[in-house]
Design a protein that fits this description.
Layout: H1 2-34, H2 38-41, H3 43-50, H4 67-78, H5 81-94, H6 97-122, E1 125-126, E2 132-133, H7 136-142, H8 147-181, H9 189-205, H10 209-237, H11 242-254, H12 261-279, H13 286-290, H14 298-327, H15 337-348, H16 350-382, H17 388-405, H18 409-449
Antiparallel strand pairs: 1-2
Helix pairs in contact: 1-6, 1-18, 3-14, 4-10, 4-14, 4-16, 5-12, 5-14, 5-15, 6-11, 6-12, 6-14, 6-18, 7-8, 8-9, 8-16, 8-17, 8-18, 9-16, 9-17, 10-14, 10-16, 14-15, 15-16, 16-17
Length: 482
């Protein structure tokens, strides 16, 4: 197993260093330039759109998924192990400078998130129960005319999120719960907790996308607030160390304190890699959630998902980094969530470890839900056979249980491989299709300048083909915005 792990690490280093990181960064910079910095320029608009309720009179008379509901589904997948264990791992391997490159990845990657989620909204499909589904596989088929590429992506994301990433989540729950509750060395602990997590997940995922949205709308804000409060408490108690932490982050990012140039490379690679794992910008995962929302204009969901990248990395990941770096724990022999847990304990006391266990459970459980849904959306793209989806659900539950029993090192490294493949396939589609997203952005801004709440119908861009869900506006008239 150790030989396999070393081989995967070597492949990852070459793959990420010489191919994926340059492609991801160049694409993000291109989207930023073409959109005139949409991720920063329209930041106030993102918050306005996030609060909008779903239009009435849609989704077959049932309550539709709002912008906030879709945001929480994607946030449920984004905000998870990567925010606690991933950030800690990046600092362990790349030093404090890795945090700076995570920030850079978020600022640049938010433009990629805007493009992919806007496209997902435009090319979504209506399901029989009145909800929607969509994502990269769907815009690869409808906009690019390459259903085979969509099939490749659908298989990759289903394996990556439904199985590989979910094994990471359940393993992290066991690691943190074992450290907090003292059951890590018991033979019964991992199987019992793994079975309980799988049972709870089953109750949610057999309820459909509306139940998924309702659960994540509850979990995501609660876990974020609790974790942020813990982080603020740690920072306030170590306020005198904050200038030192900023100096370490900036100095480590550019090698001001390093003798060997390799330390800079480690900071960049681990910062970007773990940043991408955490915020998923350009990865092609969040668009699957974006397509579920009922909004009046595709750009609205693009803006919401760009905000999601900032929420994930600039807020939640930064909180983890400051928890670790302000307490300055010994990094040797510690990795992942264990490092974050020890940092909290050293400042706040033993009770903080138990609170973190609850937070990690909520983070990981909500991520299990979001990851599962990404697979479901793409299973429906690949086949309409009724037995496949229940079989997929059962396999996900089995994977969650087995993930609780295994070691996480190989799974994390395999996750990097699959994540990279997903990103390359998705970027191959959204780079040429981005011109459509930018045209939609121009239409959106023109309506906002006219004092309107933007509404899109496909006759506004009549040259676009294979657009299914935008042939008429939702019920009700456009309202003027004060």
């Amino acid at each position: 197993m150790q030989t396999l792990d070393s081989l995967i690490v070597d492949i990852n280093d070459v793959f990420w260093t010489y191919l994926l990181i340059p492609v991801v960064v160049i694409a993000g910079l291109y989207f930023t330039q073409r959109s005139k910095g949409v991720q920063l320029r329209l930041l106030p608009e993102m918050f306005r759109v996030l609060k909008e309720p779903a239009p009435a009179g849609v989704a077959g008379g049932r309550k539709p998924v709002s912008s906030f509901g879709a945001f929480t589904i994607s946030a449920a997948s984004r905000v998870g192990t990567g925010n606690i264990a991933g950030v800690a791992g990046a600092i362990t391997l790349g030093g404090a400078g890795a945090v700076f490159w995570m920030w850079v990845m978020a600022l640049v990657g938010a433009a990629s998130a805007f493009v992919e989620s806007t496209l997902a909204q435009l090319y979504k499909e209506r399901v029989e129960d009145g909800t929607y589904r969509g994502g990269p596989a769907y815009y690869m088929k409808r906009a690019l005319g390459k259903p085979w590429l969509g099939f490749v992506f659908a298989v990759t994301i289903t394996v990556t999120f439904g199985f590989v990433f979910n094994a990471v989540q359940s393993n992290t729950i066991i690691a943190v719960a074992g450290g907090s509750l003292g059951g890590a060395d018991s033979d019964w602990f991992a199987p019992a907790v793994g079975a309980a997590v799988a049972l709870l997940l089953g109750l949610v995922i057999f309820g459909g996308v509306r139940r998924i949205a309702s659960v994540t709308q509850l979990l995501v804000p609660v876990m974020a607030i609790v974790y942020i409060v813990l982080g603020i408490a740690v920072v306030l108690l170590n306020l005198g160390d904050v200038p030192r932490v900023f100096a370490e982050i900036v100095g480590g990012a550019f090698g001001f304190r390093e003798v060997a140039g390799g330390a800079i490379g480690a900071a960049i690679q681990n910062g970007i890699r773990r940043g991408m794992f955490s915020n998923e910008a350009g990865l092609g995962s969040a668009p699957n959630a974006s397509a579920t929302a009922e909004v009046t204009h595709p750009v609205k969901q693009g803006l919401v998902q760009a905000l999601g990248v900032f929420f994930d990395t600039l807020l939640i990941c930064s909180m983890t980094a400051f928890i670790i770096l302000t307490t300055n724990p010994a990094l040797a022999g510690r990795q992942g969530a264990d490092l974050t847990q020890s940092a909290l304990q050293s400042t706040l006391g033993g009770w903080a470890a138990h609170v973190l266990t609850a937070v990690v459970f909520m983070l990981c459980f909500s991520t299990l839900i979001g990851n599962y849904y990404y697979g479901e959306s793409n299973i429906e793209y690949m086949t309409d056979r009724r037995w496949v989806l229940p079989a997929y659900r059962m396999l996900v539950l089995v994977t969650v249980f087995l993930g609780a029993l295994g070691t996480v090192s190989v799974v994390w490294n395999l996750a990097d491989v699959f994540m990279g493949v997903m990103a390359l396939v998705n970027l191959a589609a959204i780079v040429p299709l981005s011109v459509i997203a930018f045209r939609l952005l121009e239409d959106y801004q023109a309506q906002r300048r006219a004092g309107l709440d933007p509404v899109f119908t496909k006759d506004r861009l009549p040259d676009l083909t294979n657009v299914e869900c935008w042939d008429r506006s939702p019920e009700g008239e456009r309202e003027r915005v004060a």
